[in-house]
Amino acid sequence: MSRARRSLVLPLVASLLVAPLPAHADELPFRDPDLPRATRIADLLARLTVDEEVSLLHQYQPAIPRLGIGAFKTGTEALHGVAWLGGATVFPQALGLANTWNPDLVERVGAVTGREARGFHAKDPAHNGLNLWAPVVNPLRDPRWGRNEEGYSEDPYLTGRISTAFGHGVQGDHPDYLQAAPTLKHYLAYNVEDDRVTVDSIVPPRILKDYDEAAFRPAISADAATGVMASYNLVNGRPTHVGPELDEVVRSWTDEDLMIVGDAGGASNVAGAQRYHPNRVEGNAAAIRAGLDSFTEDDRNSAPTTASVKAAIGRGLITAADVEDAARHVLSIRFRLGEFDPPGRNPHASTTPDVIDAPEHRLLARQVAAEQVVLLRNDRNTLPLSTADTKKVAVVGQLADTLYEDWYSGTMPYRVTPLQGLAERAAVTSSEGVDRIRLRDLTTGRYVTASTSDSGAPLTATEVTPGDASGFDVFDWGEGTVTLRAVANGRTVSLGDGRSLVNNATQPNGWFVQQQFELVALPDGSFVLEYAGNDVTQSWFGRGRYAVVGADGRLTVTAETPAAAAKFGREVVRSGVDSAVQAAKGADAAVVAVGSMPFINGREDDDRKTTVLPAGQRAVIDAVREANPRTVVVLESGYPYAGDWDTADLPAVLWTTHAGQETGHAIADVLFGDHNPSARLTQTWYRSDADLPDKLRYDISKSGHTYQYFTGEPLYPFGHGLSYTSFGYSRLRVDRTAVDASGEVRVRVDVTNRGDRAGAEVVRLYSRQLASRARQPLKRLRAFDRVELRPGETKTVQLTVRAADLAFWDVTREKPVVESAPHELAVGPLTRVLSVRGETIPPRDLRRVTQAQNFDDYSGVTLVDTTKERGTAVASTAPGQWVSFEDVDLGRSSRSLTARVANPDAPTTVEVRLGGPGGRLAGTLAVPTTADGHSWTAVTAPLRGATGRQDVYLVFTGKARIDNLTVEGSP
User: Fold this and answer.
1) Last residue of a domain, one of 286, 320, 336
2) Residue where one domain finishes, among candidates 313, 336, 359
3) For the CBM6 domain, which residue ranges apply (predicted)?
4) Handedness of CA 574, 502, 499, 410 (dihedral sign)
5) CA-based, 20 to 30 A from 647: which of 616, 632, 670, 796?
């Protein structure tokens, strides 16, 4: 049922149920768990004032004491365990969960996450909410996205399988009560952090439907999520927070109520940075009309939101029924969580804080951390290591003896680093492979020194004779960015109060990550220290980016130019490369742990400029490999790496995401063969950043993003991952060679473990449509299963594909279509052809009103909003841009073409050409100037020689907008 229909029906139900307030609140109908939920919600809504209903639309919902209703908060972060609330089980990053290709395991992770959320809720019900903002299901279209580690895959089908599993786990398995309420993030077409509030994602209809929406739909359709969060960006000219798709598309996927929430500050951006509506009242009203139910604004201060919503009611921009409808969606989730039920009815309500970091959760964290490790390379069976001949292991690299938390990580209750995990298996030597330096102020000759206090203190250049407290370890995170760890207390240097430099951070952290620096070499051989925290891009950032030494010796960041900065000598106390080599020599094996720092190498509000491994880390790999032929590289990151690091003669390479508290045990379990790797990549690893198109190009079919459309040679392809055994595929068969659009095909294949070690194989079924009216992907994942096999064992794996799942969005008729065509089905190296009996897309009939956005091809144009409420139009930004409508039946004679146009610029024309953008000119539309981009007028051009079946091109000679077009003529 649509939101509008609910608004009409349920208030009527409420009017029939209203009764005088009984003496005891627990006797009110809304507290009767045996009544239908809709009846209970209607009863409660009927008892609320308009102001009370409005109060439910903010993230922090106040208590309503007169009805015995407590406070409620939306939004607990829980991407890979409960975050921001204190010590909790920290699982591998979301990308790592997907690497397992194991939905059953991911569901268990979701279940623990929901259980621990209940534990935190028991501590503080008003502020530790049970509405969880997870999982992230945006397809991982571009590995430069700063939030790549938060998502699952570049493939929407795999994303749907994993998100559905996680969501079901979070919700629990009770038929009536939710353990916790997962919310999918971030709707829609959101993969860019730079200028994310104002960036406009331009997505043609087919990609929007078949790719971006396709990642969100499975979990909602499977009732594995209770809502979505709107994203920060605009889509085709309209902010997502006011996009009608929230109500009209997302809610159409399920019969359950959904609570649709705004991202932090997202709704106020509509009238703020996005300047889409003139003020907050109109912006919030538009968001409610579009389907937004909960505003995440102004932290705990709900007053600006509630005042604007009430003002919108007063101005007639929304009605009280609109507010009631949004409140209904919010209350639906609260009822499903069991909030209004008597004690003992909701089995989740008895959960106590004791579940947090439970022993069984620790065991699961270790299992998942191991299962998400991908074996990228294993030449000459270097791995697994044998305890018999591996008595001494060198563990080196920047991530050898540390574990990093990310922005959405929980607080690890304990940490097992790679060094610690391997030290349980063998004698170890170690080095972080980083330079230890001293900085000497060249003006005074004095050395920069740090405090030995645990809490740190401002750095000073006061020491004549350097000691240990003058040492700083330099960690290279690429692109010139380094962090400096003080030897004095093991803390990282930060920008502190008064712009002093202070050694006080346990790891780089915070929204602006104020532990980032560059040591800038000057022509005379000296260095200046530049502060590189990401707040330097903010307009309010204080004056100065370079360090100076004050009269009292204190280092502050107050110089605006390198010329005004203090000059330092950089003295190397210990070479990181030399130290790593020394540790590696004589070891039976060397493990080099390198990778990213989650707060520095891209994260929320900060995209990566490159996916190349930092040069300093690459130097350690090369040197250690030269010193020890049995070198294993362990990459630890939340995104794929490109570059030439893999061209080195490396015997073995593992990749792990930042995998939480059990990372060290997991790496040791894999390296020594206690766990046979079975993880597979969920993204393409490109050879070079040059293989990546402009990150703003969301049309993956035109840009060549992802395995579906990338035609180059990847470093590692989607689905890659090795094992310590080998698997053979044989006897691929299908239960039918032809299927109609409503049927399904069962595919069977025999998979054999050809090695001498038990292992698990991820059996994947891809399809490729071999003939089509529209451009098709190179291949698409359709099904997969993970099968465990003993040595020599063969199992038959059955995978099922519904013909309906082979549908794609037909722009000619604005609906999904299963086309009659042959499809190649591939499992491993084996293929079969399946004939699908669907329909043949007829020639285009432009005699019907055709939305211009439903073109077949285009060059240069963009997509814009038709009105501020709904609709998408085509806009040119320069002469020569065009859109095409292919295989149009113009009949015996087409006399004219009428287009609905808008044009805030100078008068211009649009040429109607046949056969190509430079084809025969059939007519010219004269486009006048209109009041603005939303002022539409109809213009008509006579057509000459427009007959038969033709490809029709609209070629812009200047800036203009077209909403729709119609051809008039004889059939």
Assistant:
1) 336
2) 336
3) 848-968
4) positive
5) 670
374: which strand partners? 655
Number of domains in the chain: 4
Indicate the pairing of strand 546-549 with strand 631-636.
Answer: unpaired
Reading phi first (left if > 0) and then psi (alpha if -120 to 50, else beta), residue 463 is in beta
Question: Do residues 831 and 915 both lie within one domain?
Answer: no
Domain that holds residue 279: 1-73+184-196+228-255+266-336
532-550 confidence digits (pLDDT tens): 998 888 877 877 899 999 9
Residues 854 and 954 in one domain: yes
DSSP 906: S
Does residue 763 sit in the same domain as residue 862?
no
Q: What is the pTM of this model?
A: 0.96
Strand partners, 528: 520
**Residue 232 included in any domain:** yes
Residue 22 pLDDT greater than 50, yes or no: no
Computed on alpha carbons and rounded to an integer, the radius of gyration of the chain in Å comes to 30
Residue 26, Cβ neighbours under 10 Å: how many? Answer: 10
Dihedral angle over CA of 682, 614, 512, 473, nearest 10: 130
Same domain as 855, residue 829: no
C-alpha distances (whole Å) from 362 to each of 85, 90, 355, 414 are 18, 9, 11, 10
CA 305 to mean position of chain CA atoms: 28
Let me know if residue 419 belongs to a domain.
no
CB 597, CB 483: distance < 8 Å: yes
Tell whether 799 and 872 lie within a shared domain.
Answer: no
Question: How sure is the predictor about 11, in pLDDT bands with cuts at 50, 70 and 90?
Answer: very low
Same domain, 822 and 933: no
Question: Chain-centre distance of CA 439, in angstroms?
Answer: 40
Of 414, 385, 417, nearest to 401 (Cα)?
417
Q: Per residue in 921-941, is it b (16+ CB within 10 Å) or e — as a string?
A: ebbbbebeebeebbebeebeb
- The secondary structure of 210-243 as a DSSP string is IIIHHHHHHHHHTT--S-EEE-SSEETTEEGGG-
DSSP H helical segments within 100-155, as ranges?
103-123
Are 687 and 134 a contacting pair, CB within 8 Å?
no
Are 724 and 673 spatial neighbours (Cβ–Cβ below 8 Å)? yes
Domain shared by 824 and 854, yes or no = no
Higher-confidence position of 4 and 710: 710
DSSP codes joined into one string, 797-850:
EEEEEEGGGG-EEETTTTEEE-BSEEEEEEETTEEEEEEEE-BPPPPB-TTS-E
CA distances, 557 to each of 463, 489, 498, 536, 836 (Å): 20, 22, 9, 12, 67
Q: Is residue 939 part of a domain?
A: yes
Q: In whole angstroms, give the CA distance from residue 168 to residue 219.
A: 9
Q: H helices within 875-962, ranges in order? A: none
Same domain, 732 and 825: yes
